[in-house]
Design brief:
16 helices, about 400 residues, elongated, mainly alpha
Length: about 400
């Protein structure tokens, strides 16, 4: 509508401009057809300026799908943990385990389908924000690459086709072999689904709203999850680090437990079957303490321990930086500190000067009375003079 008004306004000429061939309006009128073509393309292809209400409605639709995906992910992870405990202990009936595996399999198919719907909704939202053209699709926009990567993260899961399937591995530390259930490894890799839950938590932040994304676009800032993480670290650094530390300890403890627990079938020296032992090992590894009472002995466990070390270094570094920034003074705090320091210095100068003058007067009185001034008073006078000079520097 705005572009049509501009085109019609440029087409109008005043009486003075009809005789002035050098007028800029005359030159613009000659290119009227070209401008109308460009503006029509702008209106039809990119939708003109962003309609906040429409983009917000599509954003709400996208968020609703994301919440559904997160609920499905939590449900799959919960059932997978239950199935893992049942399969490892081998005390529950095989039929019940199989039923749980089929439920997980069905939920996984629904999760993959909803992930596809999520990317379609995200594509429509980007079109309404005029980030991409209306003719774009998942392939031409390049979103299919991200979708395939997410499929690879979501695909590993314990399924009924691998139930009771085992493979053997050699442990050089013990000099023996041990068995792994294939579904145990699937449980290990599917812990990556936690990334989906983290993504939804970031999307629920105030730094990911449609208004926040419009502000980012105004200042040529890419609105995304990295911007949300930086904003949260700026606004609530200690809370973010605390939550990240707790969740990472619980997650890595479960991963390490899955990797090391099969050794308990042959050796109980390090019982990673107890969750508290795995948490303790992750905690001392992340903080670079490493007591050595519990450590990874399997190949999968050592790979997990490597990522624990890397993540621990990152978390500890962020804690140090956050604490340093917290203790640094701001501009107003620095000014207040300077004024208070001057007042304290002024008070000390006054007290030191009073003490020095009093000592000199006492020595003068002694000298007039003909009394001998002891060396201790002279040395004390020198010390007081030095103190006065030091304060006045």
């Amino acid at each position: 509508m705005i572009t049509r008004n501009i085109a019609s306004g440029l087409a109008k000429k005043t009486k003075f401009e009809q005789f002035d061939e050098s007028s800029p309006y005359h030159k613009l009128r000659e290119n009227k057809s070209q401008m109308q073509t460009i503006m029509t393309y702008f209106d039809e292809s990119s939708g003109g300026f962003e309609n906040g209400r429409v983009s917000f409605a599509y954003f709400q639709k996208w968020m609703l799908i994301e919440l559904g995906i997160s609920v499905l992910t939590i449900l799959i992870l919960g059932l997978s943990v239950i199935q893992y405990e049942m399969e490892f202990d081998e005390v529950i009936s095989q039929s019940l385990q199989g039923m749980i595996l089929w439920v997980i399999f069905a939920l996984e198919i629904i999760l993959l389908f909803m992930t596809y719907i999520r990317y379609v909704a995200f594509l429509e939202f980007q079109k309404k924000r005029n980030v991409i053209l209306n003719e774009e699709n998942l392939i031409s926009s390049g979103l299919y690459i991200d979708m395939l990567q997410e499929f690879l993260i979501l695909l590993p899961h314990p399924n009924p086709f691998l139930h009771s399937v085992k493979f053997k591995m050699v442990n050089q530390a013990l000099g023996s072999t041990y068995e792994h259930n294939v579904n145990e490894i699937m449980n290990l890799f599917q812990l990556l689904k936690v990334m989906v839950i983290i993504r939804v938590v970031l999307m629920l932040s105030t730094f990911f709203t449609t208004s926040a994304q419009r502000v980012c676009s105004m200042y040529a800032v890419k609105p995304g999850y990295l911007f949300v993480i930086k904003s949260l670290m700026k606004a609530h650094p200690f809370q973010v680090l605390f939550v990240a530390l707790i969740w990472s300890i619980l997650l890595f403890a479960q991963a390490l437990r899955i990797c090391e627990r099969p050794l308990n079938r042959n050796d109980l020296n390090m019982n990673f079957g107890e969750y508290k032992n795995a948490i303790w090992n992750v905690l001392v590894t992340m903080t670079t303490v490493g007591y050595g009472d519990y450590y990874a002995r399997t190949d999968f466990g050592r790979i997990v321990a490597f990522f624990i070390c890397i993540w621990g270094v990152c978390v500890v570094s962020l804690m140090v930086v956050t604490l340093t920034n917290f203790l640094n003074m701001g501009v107003l705090e620095t000014k207040a500190f300077s004024i208070v320091e001057r007042l304290v210095t002024k008070k000390e100068v006054r007290e030191t000067a009073y003490d020095l003058v009093s000592h000199v007067l006492r020595m003068t009185v002694k000298s007039r009375r003909g009394q001998t001034i002891p060396k201790s008073d002279i040395s004390m006078l020198r010390r007081k003079i030095n103190d006065f000079k030091a304060i006045n520097r």
